[in-house]
Structure prediction request, 485 residues.
Amino acid sequence: MGLFLVLVFLSSGIDRSEGSIHYFLTQQILQRQRLSFDSKPAGISVQAPNGRYYLMHEAGNSLWLLPTAAVAEGVGGLVNAVRGGFSADRLARLLITFNAAAYVALACLAVFVVAVHGFDVTPRVAIVGAVMLALGSEMLAYAQNLFDGVAVAAALTGALAAAVLARRRPSDRLAAVAGMLAGMAVITRLTAVLAVPALAVYLLVAPGGRRRVAWFLATLAPFAGWQAYYNNLRTGSSLVSAEMLPVAHNLTGSVADGLAGLLLSPSRSVLVYTPLLVLLPLGALLAWRVNRPLVLAIGWILATYTLFIASLADWAGAYGWGPRHMVVVVPVAFILVVVVLGRARSAPAWVGLAALAVMGTVVNLPAILANWHYRLLLWMSQHGGANFPDWSVGDSQWVFQLRGLAANLRYVLGQGPPAVVPEYTPSQAVSANTADLWWLTASQFGVPAAVGVIVGVLLVATGVTLVVMAWRRAPAMAPAAPVAA
Prediction:
């Protein structure tokens, strides 16, 4: 809860990703009980054989927004019954951005569970690791972004945590939970299916494994059925997703080029945006000594997913922050980083680890404060629609973003002009040229500025207090029970 509140504090309150397109489907389901549209909606869509229009992306991200949107609709109805003039849609668009913060917080919780119960890391160290993941990695920038990969990261890491607990206790129910979470990940982003064999085999190779795999597959099956149904609606084939159609432009490229970019590109490398991942080989070696089956499962997930993303022509993910596609597995990879934290004993070692985490914060925090989407559009308007070059340091996305943050500071101090992007409204341009935090920009929507600041301060103070209290109350020793083989 503490990390969630801190991440809510850092939210912009306006989603500018493909999540806003997914919200169109959420509204359609709530208001018209339909999965399709009469006419072509905004964003990427496909016309089905029945003549109706469907979103090209999978429906999971839209489905997970339903509870939040329903709450906003209910609150809006009550307020309008009393005073009128209240926009339930505006409230919903604010609240759904907090879904992203919740997804990142849940992914951090899952990393904590796997580190403690799978690799014998002490709870206090695992809490430190969870904080580093939330604030010192690419997840920080995506905690205010409803890109569907963020939801998949939470569900996939949660499935792994449930599988670890299912083996450790042992528990058929937790194996069923793992299957359900894996299914949620798959119907949100199909590439999550690459992790399913790893989870199934990990559950299988243990006493009682066949029974737990049966439970895992039983709860996964309804999601597979849904995906087949939704595929058939959009393409006429239960085995062909709209994402597989030529119009989706998911073209293949060179795996070697993709791997080089994901690992070495100064503008798009996952190691630039999450510097602590340079410890991954060391973490794997240390973790291998503790729990080999779990290391193999994690390795399977990371290897298959990374190779698939590297095989895409657009391996970095267009219109994203950093290596957008890798958000899905950054929490899974970070588990091995937490193992390294658990073995750090000297002060110099902790200084080095903290330095890597701070580097991640320095790279990713400007994406929040200066609205990376605004700066991306600004760059493209200045360069004929081209994205950031992959192999330039000076013109890399994160360096341009740091310059943008400095430009915002000059503008606030009255020493420079604002950056202008025609696609943005005047109110959006104001927030993009100052500090893009919802509690600071609430005054644009009629909320007194002082109220917004007070709410923001209370949020971050409460969040930090809860994290510190959790760390103090956490045992300084690892669980007494041995780690399952």
Q: What stands out?
A: Strands lie at 45-47, 53-55. The CA atoms of residues 92 and 436 lie 18 Å apart.
